[in-house]
Design brief:
The complex is a heterodimer. Chain A is α+β, with helices and mostly antiparallel strands. Chain A contains twelve helices and 23 strands. In chain A, β1, α1 and β2 form a beta-alpha-beta unit. The longest helix of chain A is centred in the first third of the chain and has 20 residues. Chain B folds into three domains: 189 residues, FAD/NAD(P)-binding domain (3-Layer(bba) Sandwich), CATH 3.50.50; 133 residues, FAD/NAD(P)-binding domain (3-Layer(bba) Sandwich), CATH 3.50.50.60; 94 residues, no CATH class. In chain B, the strands form seven sheets. In chain B, strands 1, 2, 5, 6, 7, 8 and 20 form a seven-stranded mixed sheet that branches. In chain B, α4 packs parallel to α5 and α5 runs parallel beside α6. The relative contact order of chain B is 0.13. Classes of the chains: A alpha+beta, B alpha/beta. Chains A and B meet through α7, β18, α9 and β23 of A and α3, α4, β11 and β15 of B. β23 of chain A pairs antiparallel with β11 of chain B. Chain A: Pfam families: DAO (PF01266), Fer2_BFD (PF04324). Chain A: This is Glycerol-3-phosphate dehydrogenase. Chain A: InterPro entries: BFD-like_2Fe2S-bd_dom, BFD-like_2Fe2S-bd_dom_sf, FAD-dep_OxRdtase, FAD/NAD-bd_sf, G3P_Oxidase/Oxidoreductase.
Chain lengths: 492, 420
């Protein structure tokens, strides 16, 4: 595909850098206002960085220091999530969480954690004794002497949330420019109005305001315009994901207090019914270093065994790593930079970033709209309907749907029961999938126990048909990630 | 749609077709095959190499040719089949729920069910290979489909991990299609594939086989750029200092097959740990009455000829079950011992058996000049020397019904390997 170079210069009210969950949440909330918005993303799709590789946890909010932005946005995001999941139709479940304590002498710390949570405004926190833990979660270790139970903890599909926010922003007028990498940002006033000039690999863009939601690169962009330097350290987290047959191993998200092995790992069901263990926490240099390591994966298994001795490790279907955008100041950096007017940071968004995203979006959008003097649109499409999901539909819903469109009767991904109808919808809908991973994140085709062994050739066929391209042009995840090298015998 | 069939066969690959055809020959006229792919034949359709049918037809056929013979049989016998049809669920009382474009969601009530869903390949994730997750990592069977059915080459410079038969076959195929296969690495100190495949697919093309080696890292953020191989010790742990980086754009995995028993589990049928397939008796009947299993869903085979034999037994038994029922009562346990990983069947009710009962099994290690022994309780009744036995090659012993029936009160048949 030839690189697309823009002939014209674009002018926006707000440019959002980064189409992760934070950028998409900000864009969605901004799209309530009469503003010209553009989201710039260097990858080919939304949800390609930190947002796609994390725990998928909606934290209750007891971990953050009282008074911190993390505490504020965590609580607010947690409260918003349920309504939002209905409004935007993405999977969310309030399954509750536990923090396990393994030593009698550390029960005091658990009490402290409870007090901290209460100070943050977390409701329903309760200390569980040994018997109660095992009654609620029979597979957990007997070595857990106490636990902090948080009924408001939940799990969410990080792809589902991000994609829903993006689609809704798009439907409400926000533009998205993918495969576009910002090289520099400069404050300019030559058009009469003050604003920013962004040079990208595709051309120049001007905007009155900029939102920096660039994940592990948020420091780079902030430091281009602000003297108040940020420093983002990529903190790697490795995970192991287990087969759906193990998804009921625990019902709640199981955290650990720190042990002699260091910071704990969690064991959690995912909202789709898998079991997940992880993450590690290792500060690294490479902001692209999303590789898993033998040591990391082993650490995950060892630490998980502290919470439950019999985690079915033989049922692992895949492992992955993500990078948390850890800011040196150890808190979110949110709002207008003091020395760079109309430059708004949403930086240092690490855990509980996923939980906080909807709240960050709402608060930041209101601040930006206020500064720009924007007014709310009369027509804002508040609801979004997701892709019809065959595997969770009732028999009646499914029968009706197939009658309407027989493609929903044609199963493509057998492990996750994803049909041709769902895959076609994933490509055709607003901001549709363009790659195998794009289809996977939207439909779960290829996410099951065979890890796309059976369905990838079929998904490729549908993708090529829908995109009107040759299979040789198809990628796993954009850029140079081509799936096929050529035709049989063409080099002989 | 709601129909009743005497026998519903789940899967229209070699196992399902042979089972259906033999049930038909045994007098059952009311049979339905449900197949998820767009044609009958299963994985044979992408196995365009030869070597199929030496036992069954006494000639060498390609996979599609072998399949075609059974497809004709199914069609000539007038056996009903539905393509592009996915079975979603089978209830304990044998009501099969399935779905396709034409019928939508539908149920079929079956007198007997024959499970013939085959197997799937183990993915990278099951091995916990660390590294990046770029494009260019395929299971060997997926690559085989891309190359042989779709006409696309998934990559040009290839490393293959695992020396299972599909991996070996794909080493040759990729070479023939213009790719460079740099090495086949095998974690175990012996190959998991057939000896003939090592000779014909690797040796004949000068492709090195590195035993006791594995991939410990995958490099490349967009497309695979290379992999790191390392030698492993006797505990299969990589040995530091033996790492070797091999530039390549493709990693093919042939690291084991897993019987696809999600439907079986859904019915609450007992599975065997060693095979991940259902436990069956002499009639290939599972722990649920009237539910039979055969082929790779039961245990992974290396030759389709044996799949056919086993499936014909299952088809006949299912027919007997429908016509006159099977005898119930105390069965003789078949025990896998001393180097034998499992046996199929794992119990025998002599009265239900044909004249001969084939007991298939695999060994857990390589054995040279050792004996296969069969004990009826404490008495050794068979002691057969084999020059070589390996986990990659299925073994069998044949028991006579007559002999078994003579021994009243026989409790256990033990199959074991006795070393020199």
């Amino acid at each position: 595909m030839a690189p697309e170079i823009w002939e014209v210069r674009f002018m926006y009210d707000v440019v959002v850098i980064g189409a992760g969950v934070t950028g998409c949440a900000v864009a969605r909330e901004l799209s309530r206002y009469d503003l010209k918005i553009c989201v710039l993303e260097r990858e080919e799709d939304v949800c390609c960085g930190t947002s796609k590789a994390n725990s998928g946890i909606v934290h209750a909010g007891h971990d953050a220091r009282p008074g911190s932005l993390k505490a504020k946005f965590n609580l607010m995001g947690n409260e918003m999530m349920e309504d939002l999941s209905k409004e935007l139709d993405f999977p969310f479940r309030r399954n509750g969480s536990m923090v396990l304590c393994f030593k009698e002498e550390e029960k005091g710390k658990l009490e402290e954690l409870k007090r901290q949570g209460e100070e943050n405004g977390v409701k329903g926190l309760r200390i569980l004794e040994r018997e109660e833990i095992r009654r609620m979660e029979p597979n957990l270790t007997e070595n857990a002497v106490a636990a902090l139970y948080a009924p408001s903890g939940g799990i969410v599909c990080p792809f589902g949330l991000t994609i829903a926010l993006a689609e809704n922003a798009y439907v409400n007028g926000a533009e998205f420019r993918f495969n576009t990498e910002v090289a520099s940002i400069e404050r300019v006033s030559d058009t009469g109005r003050e604003g920013y000039l962004l040079r990208t690999d595709k051309g120049e863009i001007r905007s009155r305001a900029v939102v920096n939601a660039a994940g592990v690169y948020a420091d780079t962009f902030n430091n281009m315009v602000s003297g108040r330097k940020l420093s983002i350290i990529p903190r790697k987290g490795e995970y192991r994901l287990l087969d759906k047959s193990t998804g009921k191993f625990v019902d709640k998200t199981i955290f650990q207090m720190p042990t002699e092995l260091g910071k704990g790992v969690l064991i959690t069901p995912t909202v789709h019914g898998n079991l997940m263990v992880g993450p590690t926490a290792a500060d690294i240099e490479d902001k692209e270093g999303v590789n898993t390591t033998a040591e990391g994966l082993e650490e995950v298994a060892l630490k998980a065994a502290l919470s439950a001795e019999h985690v079915p490790g033989g049922q692992v279907i895949t492992s992955f790593a993500g990078l948390r955008a850890h800011e040196a100041g150890d808190d979110f950096v949110i709002g207008e930079a003091e020395d760079a007017a109309f430059f708004f940071n949403a930086a240092g968004i690490e855990s509980p970033g996923l939980t906080s995203a909807p709240a960050i979006g709402a608060v930041l959008a209101e601040e930006i709209a206020g500064r720009l003097g924007a007014v709310r649109k009369e027509k804002f499409q508040v609801e979004r309907k997701g892709i019809f999901c065959v595997s969770t539909a009732t028999k009646e819903e499914l029968a009706d749907r197939i009658k309407e469109n027989p493609a929903y009767g044609n199963v493509i991904c057998r492990c996750e029961t994803v049909t041709e109808g769902e895959i076609r919808d994933a490509v055709r809908r607003p901001l549709g999938a363009k790659s195998l991973d794009g289809v996977k994140r939207r439909t779960r085709a290829g996410m099951g126990r065979c890890q796309s062994g059976f369905c990838s050739p079929k998904v490729m066929e549908i993708l090529a048909e829908e995109l009107g391209c040759s299979k040789l042009e198809l990628t796993k995840s954009g850029h140079g990630s081509y799936l096929l090298a050529g035709l049989d015998k063409e080099n002989l | 749609m709601r129909k009743d069939y005497d026998i519903v066969v789940i899967g229209g690959g070699p196992a399902g077709m042979a089972a259906a055809a033999s049930a038909r020959e045994s007098g059952i006229t009311n049979i339905l095959i449900l197949e998820r792919d767009r044609e009958l034949g299963g994985i044979l359709n992408q196995c365009i190499h030869n070597g199929f049918g030496l036992h069954t037809f006494k000639e060498e056929l390609t996979g599609p040719e072998y399949a075609a013979r059974f497809i004709s049989k199914v069609k000539e016998a007038g056996i009903d089949y539905m393509l592009n049809t996915m079975v979603l669920d089978i209830s304990p009382d044998k009501e099969v729920t399935a779905m396709n474009r034409e019928e939508g969601l539908f149920t079929v009530r079956a007198g007997a069910v024959i499970l013939a869903m085959g197997c799937r390949e183990r993915p990278r994730g099951a091995l916990n290979i660390p590294g990046y997750r770029p494009a260019g990592i395929y299971s060997a069977g997926t690559a085989q489909r891309l190359v042989n059915i779709e006409g696309f080459l998934p990559g040009r410079e290839v490393v293959i991990l695992g020396s299972g038969d599909i991996g070996l076959i794909m080493a040759r195929r990729m070479t023939l299609e213009g790719a460079k296969v740099k090495v086949v690495a095998e974690l175990m100190p012996y190959s998991g594939g057939l000896k003939r495949n090592i000779v014909q697919c690797l040796d004949d093309f000068g492709i090195p086989l590195k035993l006791s080696h594995t991939v410990i890292d995958i490099d490349g953020k967009e497309r695979v750029k290379g992999v790191t191989l390392a030698r492993v010790d006797e505990n299969r742990k990589p040995i530091p200092g033996t790492e070797e980086y091999i530039p390549c754009d493709t990693l093919l995995l042939s690291v084991g097959l897993v019987p696809e028993n999600e439907l079986t589990k859904g019915m609450g049928i007992d599975l065997m740990r060693a095979t991940s397939g259902p436990k069956v008796n002499e009639s290939m009947e599972t722990s649920r009455e009237g539910v039979f299993a055969c082929g790779n869903v039961l245990h992974v085979h290396d030759l389709v000829d044996y799949v056919t034999q086993e499936s014909e037994e299952a088809g006949k038994a299912a027919a007997r079950y429908i016509k006159s029922g099977l005898k119930r009562g105390a069965a003789v346990e078949v025990e896998a011992a001393g180097g034998v990983r499992y046996t199929v069947p794992s119990s025998i009710q002599p009265e239900n058996a044909e004249d001969k009962i084939v007991v298939r099994f695999r060994v857990g290690d390589v054995y040279k000049d050792s004996w296969i022994s069969v004990y009826y309780d404490k008495e050794r009744i068979l002691h057969r020397k084999k020059r070589i036995m390996a986990p990659g090659e299925m073994e069998q012993v044949i028991l006579k019904k007559e002999e078994l029936q003579k021994r009243m009160g026989l409790k256990k048949i033990t199959i074991t390997i006795e070393e020199a």
